[in-house]
Amino acid sequence: MELTLLGTGAPEGLPRPSCPCAVCASARGPWARAATALLADDALLLDLTPGAVFAAARAGRSLGAVRQVLLTHPHDGPAVELPAALPPAGRVPDGQVLTLISGHRVRAVAMDAPGTGYEVTSPEGERLLYLPPGAAPAGLPERVERPLVMVVCDVVGRPDAVARLRAAGAVGPTTEVIAVHLDHDAPPGPALERRLAAAGARAVPDGTTLVVGEYHAVPDVPRRVLVTGGARSGKSVEAEQRLETFPEVVYVATGGRRDGDPEWAARIGLHRERRPGAWRTEETCELAELLRADGPPLLIDCLSLWLTDAMDRVGAWEDERWHDGGGEAALRERVAELVAAVRGTRRPVVLVTNEVGSGVVPATSAGRRFRDELGRLNAAVAAECEQVLLVVAGQVLVLRG
């Protein structure tokens, strides 16, 4: 089955008309995207958008052989004129199957938002799933018989849709996930590619024709990632986005609780509200034990608070204890255990840490010791990670991978 993406953008397109934001301002040339519409084997058109005939012509296709036009979501803009010779556009009721004269079978899939998803099976048996913008499947079975060959959906706007499909086995290691309905909340250019790759997905330019079932290397998701940056740089958000399409994640909070500190409680509450509800939280600094165990992906936030706890345990803040009381040796041993666990872990892990060596030199020896030890810890952990990211003012710089 050949699938031509006549458009890959949000219903209003990208750039949005009259929008002054930076993403819309830079969405030019290959980064410009018309509203998403899919043409399958020149016989089935999924979503009717303005200029569909011209978009098909630019892609070297024709709509003359289209036998069915199906809509996936309500159209709130101006009426779209139906091109001559196209059959009337319609929608299939949830759960029902439509068989086309071309041999394609289309099953309507219920969504958790207004709209309808369509599972399309080619005459040869390849299966793809196309979801409307801002929606995820509702009422999926606990386990499907076999994974889909391709999923085309709103990966940026609804990453949990991919997570649900993964949990049910509909998205497997070889499933090709294509991001569409891209709006100005998606980062531009290489930043979008990096974010999608973390989800095992990719985006393609408008007019691209894909062969469903043809081998295409699924983006390789790094198993170990270190995200570093300054205070309020956006590093925790970046770390969370890297795992938002996984059905189960263990969020490891190393900060613990601070009774009587409302400001700290507010910080923790903000983090919890931002995380998907299916994630499980563990408040612990026993990271090596978690890394050595099997289980779902880990998000560890953060190493600087883990180091604070480690220095507390060995009395590393006091000069006498540090130099002559075995504090330095004890800390080195604990750090080495953590680094070895990162090296040997079999589960995906994203670690967050702080950059504290680029600012004001601490006034105390204990403060300078913490700065130095965190720098050493960051370097040692980074050496064991396939990807290392630096976040500055919400922008991500790839240092490795």
- Distance between the terminal alpha carbons, to the nearest Å? 34 Å
Give the percentage of residues in beta strands. 15-25%
The class by helix and strand makeup works out as alpha/beta
Determine Rg (CA atoms, Å): 25 Å
Strand segment tally: 20
Spatial shape: elongated
**How would you characterize the largest beta sheet?**
7 strands, mixed
Count, helices: 11
Mean pLDDT: 90
Helix content: 25-40%
Low-confidence stretches: none
Biggest sheet, spatial arrangement of strands: 6-7-8-9-10-11-12
What do these coordinates show?
This protein has 401 residues and is an alpha/beta fold. Helix content is 28%, strand content 21%. The strands form three sheets. A seven-stranded mixed β-sheet has the order 6-7-8-9-10-11-12. It has a seven-stranded mixed β-sheet with strand order 16-15-17-18-14-19-20, with helices on both faces. Helix 8 packs across helix 11. The longest helix is centred in the last third of the chain and has 18 residues. The protein is elongated, with a radius of gyration of 25 Å. The two termini are 34 Å apart. The model has no long low-confidence stretch (mean pLDDT 90).
